[in-house]
Design goal:
Length: 87
């Protein structure tokens, strides 16, 4: 895997990424930590551009994520309380 200046940290885990060319001549960027990749691109430059493209989440996506996480945490707390006899 090639270390390439200009690659942003992984959008998922913050890890370092590199680019590589597969046997068919297609390029991908991949995170060293979590393995996240781009779609295959024809050139390394397209690959880097794709990796660095960040679209911020919408307000609706953020709210939905918070609500989902909150519900999961409530459920987990309920199960732990029940398991340890605190209900």
């Amino acid at each position: 895997m090639t270390r390439r200046k200009g690659l942003l940290p992984c959008p998922h885990c913050g890890g370092r990424a590199g680019t590589y060319e597969d046997w068919a001549g297609w390029w991908q960027a991949q995170c060293d930590e979590c393995g996240a990749t781009t779609l295959k691109k024809k050139t390394e430059e397209e690959c880097v551009e794709s990796w660095n493209h960040r679209v911020p989440p919408s307000e609706e996506q953020i709210v939905a994520y918070i609500e989902k996480t909150h519900a999961e945490n409530r459920e987990m707390l309920h199960k732990l309380k029940k398991k340890h006899g605190f209900e």
